[in-house]
Design brief:
With about 425 residues, the protein is an alpha+beta fold. It contains eight helices and 18 strands. The mean pLDDT is about 90. This is Galactose-1-phosphate uridylyltransferase.
Length: about 425
């Protein structure tokens, strides 16, 4: 099987990616898009190629299927309903109830669908066609949002129970998986910086390409790590959610940024970064193009924000080569120091559960120019043997109560390594 013709719509690789990363597209058996991102010189040069055909007997994902009563029914895309009290859109993704789980006591799958294919292994429902890979990106098999071809889109009611209080829309977004490494037992914190550089390129590549797709309003790359966070697949990977709306957290930030611009004429995120640098009290590490700091009003018992120094960067695809290398160094450092943050008494730290959330400017909202790219990294672990539960005040009223102070968090991070990091390799 030859690679299908794939013409990038917006993605333009920099000098490093052109020479050291090869992107090879294909499709999985049910029609989903799949991309290998190789940094192995044998594959970059074309001397070796990846397997492109998916041998699984999967039916087209948009094809009719049989329901529980054995009746053939048309494909039904995920729906979302609008909460009249908050204005939030809530996707309803019932297909996710059937997704495989390999982590924790509720594990349902004996094989890892994100691992490379293992010849002779009885489990052959993996998502990776080849027996090895570097980084892989593909559409989620069990998405909470999904882009459906117009010709096959099912007719959807516009209202729940015919009542205008509850509008309904197709959850016409997109969900992708980013596998960081083929080793299913690896930890993201232990990956070499060169592999994380390929992950950064994957984020930039998908941000650029997805931004051209109709109906997408926000692109949200993120990583969940650890059983306590709720990770269902034990493999170093992240996801990219592409919303057909602006998510509530970003909407709240955009309002604040727009209000600040109107009152002061400044960019709120740029001024926050400047204020943190001027204070220096909560800056935990930095390099030539990025700064990591604990925000002055941190919510979580462990929280770090990472921001580019250069103004005008709204999304990951706008980073230059040096910034992408320096980001790989920053991300590696952040994960390593996060794992060392809590001392069990043996000096070895722990595998920290965390969420790493990329906040990018929305695609079409006029307030996008008031925004600025930033990473928000946090964990609800508050001690070696304690986690922060989001109970009445946080869950019921979204009124946060912190269990520590940002200065204490920053002090602990600064104990774990130098403030100034070496810059990333720029080949």
């Amino acid at each position: 099987m030859k690679s299908e013709q794939y013409v990038p719509q917006r993605y333009v690789p920099g000098d490093y990616a052109r020479e050291h990363i090869r992107i090879t597209p294909t499709r999985l058996a049910d029609g989903r898009r799949f991309f290998y991102l190789d940094d192995d010189p044998e594959y970059v040069s074309g001397r070796r190629t990846r397997r492109l055909d998916d041998p699984r007997p999967l039916t087209d994902r948009f094809a009719p299927h049989q329901d529980q009563e054995g009746r053939t029914v048309p494909f039904q895309p995920p729906q979302m309903r609008r909460d009249p009290l908050t204005g939030d859109w809530i996707p309803m993704a019932t297909a996710r109830m059937n997704r495989p789980i390999t982590a924790g006591p509720q594990a349902t799958a004996k094989g890892n669908p994100l691992a490379a294919r293992k010849p002779g292994d009885p489990y052959q429902d993996g998502e990776i066609p080849d027996v090895d890979y570097n980084v892989a990106v593909f559409e989620n098999r069990f998405p909470s949002m999904m882009q459906v071809p117009n010709t096959q889109a099912a007719d959807q009611p516009s209202l729940v129970d015919g009542n205008p209080l509850w509008p309904v829309r197709e959850a016409n977004g997109r969900c992708e998986v980013v596998c960081f490494d083929p080793d299913e037992h690896a930890l993201p914190a232990d990956l070499p910086v060169s592999r994380l550089r390929t992950v950064v390129e994957a984020w930039a590549f998908r941000t650029a390409e997805i931004s051209t797709m109709e109906g997408i309003e926000q692109i949200f790359p993120f990583e969940n790590h650890g059983q306590e966070i709720g990770v269902s697949l034990a493999h170093p990977h992240g996801q990219i959610y592409c919303y057909p709306f602006i998510a509530p957290r970003l909407e709240q930030e955009l309002r604040q940024c727009a209000d600040y611009r109107e009152r002061t004429g400044g960019n709120l995120l740029a001024d926050i970064l400047k204020a943190e640098l001027d204070s220096g009290r909560r800056v935990v590490f930095r390099n030539a193009t990025w700064v990591a700091y604990v925000p002055a009003a941190a919510r979580w018992p462990l929280e770090v924000h990472v921001a580019p120094i250069r103004d005008g960067i709204l999304s990951l695809d706008q980073l230059n080569d040096q910034e992408r290398w320096d980001l790989a160094v920053m991300y590696s450092t952040l994960l390593k120091r996060g794992n060392a943050f809590f001392d069990k008494g043996d000096g070895r730290g722990m595998d920290l559960p965390y969420i790493a959330a990329w906040h990018q400017a929305p695609l079409h909202d006029p307030r996008r120019e008031d925004y600025r790219l930033n990473l928000q990294f946090f964990s609800f672990r508050r001690a070696v043997d304690k986690i922060k539960y989001l109970a009445g005040s946080e869950s019921g009223m979204a009124a946060w109560v912190s269990d520590t102070t940002p200065e204490r968090i920053a002090d602990r991070f600064r104990q774990l390594g130098p403030l100034d990091l070496e810059n990333g390799e720029n080949q």
